[in-house]
């Protein structure tokens, strides 16, 4: 480890032999790791990581054996069971085990199931939260997941149900009524069904939608569209998973907050996309 990788002075916990730390790796950009995650990477003897964990993050664990436990799309639960049991075996073998998952381990990541299996087998665990794609990924696209002028609640939705197939088990009508901003994970495969359900439930076809793929990575792409045009525009865009879909007026804020575009020298498209009126006078 170089000097620049050293942690600020503090009582950093030790990843002890026989323990499993279940840790979020954030949405991609290694800078979005927590210090606890970095502390874990530096101590782990084994890192079991998912498809969504950015390769650059693994470089922070040069000593560790790295085991890929990736599975994307409709994931059979037997695979999940194998991973959980593998973690148990490694812990029982006295390894310092780091289970690294994309985003936050407890947000649509089956972290709860894995941790439960570990506890059921008597394996001690520590949970390290991470920045979830549905919050941090949208922030990298200049979209604040809440805004005083837009929403008092936000709903995080998975586009897959337990079978990995369709989002049919969701009550789209009640979601539509109750939440001004919807953040949809794993929504790409069924986007036509999802947008159709939202339109049927009364959300306007003109409602702003953004799709952010590979958020926070150098490959990040953003599609801005409307609910009515979502399916066709997405198909035409060629955007691929992983992607977050955000439905709601907070998407408009990207017109003034596309900070990555501004860093490249682009001018903000609209200084007042929500019609808040004049900016407050500075002193
Ligand atoms: N635990 C993760 C979510 C896992 S579910 C988290 O908290 O972020 C997998 C879904 O997360 C993907 O299908 C996609 O919808 C979303 N996702 C994860 N990383 C992403 C990224 N870098 N960009 C866009 N979406 C991402």
Number of helices: 10
Q: Given this structure, which CATH class of the largest domain is correct?
A: Alpha Beta
Bound molecules: S-adenosyl-L-homocysteine
Number of strands: 10
Radius of gyration: 20 Å
Textual characterization of the structure:
- The chain has 283 residues and is an alpha/beta fold.
- It contains ten helices and ten strands.
- A five-stranded parallel β-sheet has the order 3-2-4-1-5, with helices on both faces. A five-stranded mixed β-sheet has the order 6-7-10-8-9, sandwiched between helices.
- α3 packs across α4.
- Residues 27-28, 52, 101-104, 107-109, 132-133, 137, 185-186, 212-217, 241-244 line the site of S-adenosyl-L-homocysteine.
List keywords for this structure.
283 residues; alpha/beta; Cobalt-precorrin-4 Transmethylase, domain 1; Methyltransferase, Cobalt-precorrin-4 Transmethylase, Domain 2; 2 domains; 5-stranded parallel sheet; binds S-adenosyl-L-homocysteine
Secondary structure layout:
Layout: E1 20-24, H1 35-43, E2 46-49, H2 55-58, E3 65-68, H3 77-92, E4 97-101, H4 111-120, E5 125-128, H5 133-140, E6 154-158, H6 172-178, E7 181-185, H7 191-200, E8 208-213, E9 221-226, H8 230-237, E10 243-247, H9 254-257, H10 259-263
Parallel strand pairs: 1-4, 1-5, 2-3, 2-4, 6-7
Antiparallel strand pairs: 7-10, 8-9, 8-10
The chain binds S-adenosyl-L-homocysteine.
Short précis:
With 283 residues, the protein is an alpha/beta fold. 29% of the residues lie in helices and 17% in strands.
């Amino acid at each position: 480890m170089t000097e620049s990788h050293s942690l600020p002075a503090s009582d950093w916990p030790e990843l002890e032999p026989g323990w499993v730390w279940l840790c979020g790796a954030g949405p991609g950009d290694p800078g979005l790791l927590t210090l606890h995650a970095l502390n874990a990477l530096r101590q782990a003897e084994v890192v079991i990581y998912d498809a969504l964990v950015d390769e650059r993050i693994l470089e922070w664990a040069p000593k560790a054996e790295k085991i890929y436990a990736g599975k994307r799309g409709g994931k059979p639960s037997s695979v999940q069971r194998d991973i959980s049991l593998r973690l148990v075996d490694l812990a029982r073998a006295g390894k310092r085990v780091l289970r690294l998952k994309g985003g936050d381990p407890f947000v649509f990541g089956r972290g709860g199931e894995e941790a439960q299996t570990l506890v059921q087998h008597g394996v001690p665990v520590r949970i390290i939260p991470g920045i979830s794609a549905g919050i941090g990924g949208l922030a990298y696209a200049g979209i604040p997941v809440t805004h005083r002028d837009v929403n008092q609640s936000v709903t995080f939705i998975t586009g897959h149900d337990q079978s990995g197939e369709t989002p049919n088990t969701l009550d789209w009508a009640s979601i539509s009524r109750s939440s001004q901003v919807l953040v949809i994970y794993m929504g790409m495969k069924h986007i036509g069904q999802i947008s159709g359900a939202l339109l049927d439930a009364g959300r306007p076809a003109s409602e702003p939608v953004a799709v952010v793929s590979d958020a926070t990575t150098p490959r990040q792409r953003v599609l801005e569209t409307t609910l009515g045009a979502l399916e066709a525009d997405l198909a035409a865009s060629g955007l691929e998973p992983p992607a977050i879909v955000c439905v709601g007026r907070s998407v408009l804020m990207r017109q003034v907050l596309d900070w990555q575009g501004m860093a490249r020298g682009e001018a903000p498209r609209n200084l007042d996309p929500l019609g808040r009126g004049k900016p407050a006078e500075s002193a």
